[in-house]
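Lab meeting, item 3. Inverse folding demo.
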């Protein structure tokens, strides 16, 4: 009998209890009323009278031992219960990558433009989007009856009581910053050469379509100093175009007209979408217009208090949307403002 007790001690000690099932099996076998320990108590009657007391004590401590083991195992299982119900971890699954954002393509290209001009000494200047007629038109040598002032083109902020357009408007180009920069010279004791680009948002009253928007972005450039000539303008824009697009890009200057520059030229580059074979973007001509430019009209210099006998300057202005279209093949202006993540994600890491 005592040998059997010893055996059961060993069994209890080595019984594996790692789940609720195993705990239940343990209970049935060593604690339950049909278990082995109860069975031994039954057999106590057969033990000779003189040994019964000692064996009885042994059995009692065996029973205690079994109960002790049961209690310990059930509390430790209880504590690890929450881990039990977690789904199993599959270490062979592929990693879920961190989702990271992308720069908006217009911002990306704006930064590229700033960086290219920054490397050749242009700083960045800014100005208001709500502007007066003078800074947007008057100082830029627009005649009073110029069609650009027309309600069809310009968003006026308010109307005068007699129905005429008010003085405040949403700027139609970033040229207002040219005026503000030059006008600022009056605060300098001597003339400080100006070499700046002016990125910003502009507004025109156009119906929204794939090719036109009422809000878009320009980067304007201005260089005013002694002896600035048309060759400087050409050199700078050649450099920009080659940095921005392929080294073999072709560029041409086409005579044009702007009230604030004289002479004026529009700048075309060889189509970066079809490379000359003809496509809707270049209207099958192989050339795409990217900027307007020219030598600052002496009237504009005078309007800003700069002496045109002593100083000359050039200016240029380009549309950021157009540059982005040619650089990344974006063919619908509306994509820029729709916030479709499928479009925006394509610029991750660009
Ligand atoms: N302001 C002109 C436009 O919006 C662009 C331009 C800027 C042209 C500077 C010449 C010089 O079209």
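The presenter then showed the designed sequence:
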């Amino acid at each position: 009998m005592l040998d059997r007790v010893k055996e059961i001690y060993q069994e209890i000690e080595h019984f594996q209890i790692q789940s609720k099932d195993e705990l239940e099996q343990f209970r049935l076998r060593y604690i339950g009323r049909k278990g082995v320990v109860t069975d031994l108590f039954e057999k106590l009657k057969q033990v000779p009278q003189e040994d019964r007391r000692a064996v009885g004590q042994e059995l009692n401590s065996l029973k205690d031992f079994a109960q002790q083991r049961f209690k310990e195992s059930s509390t430790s299982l209880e504590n690890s219960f929450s881990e039990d119900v977690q789904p199993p971890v599959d270490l062979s699954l592929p990693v879920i990558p961190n989702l990271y954002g992308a720069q908006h393509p217009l911002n990306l290209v704006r930064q590229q433009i700033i960086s290219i001009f920054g490397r050749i000494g242009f700083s960045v200047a800014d100005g208001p989007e709500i502007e007066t007629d003078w800074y947007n038109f008057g100082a830029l040598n627009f005649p009073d009856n110029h069609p650009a002032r027309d309600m069809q083109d310009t968003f006026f902020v308010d109307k005068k009581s007699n129905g005429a357009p008010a003085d405040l408007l949403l700027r139609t180009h970033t040229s207002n910053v040219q005026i503000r920069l030059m006008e600022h010279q009056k605060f300098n004791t001597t003339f400080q050469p100006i070499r700046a680009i002016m990125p910003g948002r502009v507004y025109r009253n156009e119906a929204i379509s794939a090719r036109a928007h009422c809000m878009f972005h320009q980067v304007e450039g201005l260089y005013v100093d002694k002896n600035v000539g048309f060759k400087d303008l050409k050199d700078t824009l050649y450099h920009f175009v080659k940095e921005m697009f392929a080294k073999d890009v072709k560029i041409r200057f086409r005579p044009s007209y702007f009230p604030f520059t004289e002479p004026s030229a529009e700048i075309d580059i060889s189509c970066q979408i079809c490379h000359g074979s003809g496509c809707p973007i270049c209207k099958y001509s192989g050339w795409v217009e990217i900027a307007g430019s020219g030598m600052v009209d002496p009237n504009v210099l005078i309007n800003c208090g700069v002496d045109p006998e002593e100083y000359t300057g050039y200016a240029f202005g380009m549309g950021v949307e157009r540059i982005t279209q040619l650089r990344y093949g974006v063919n619908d202006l509306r994509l820029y403002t729709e916030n479709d993540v499928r479009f925006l994600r394509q610029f991750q890491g660009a």
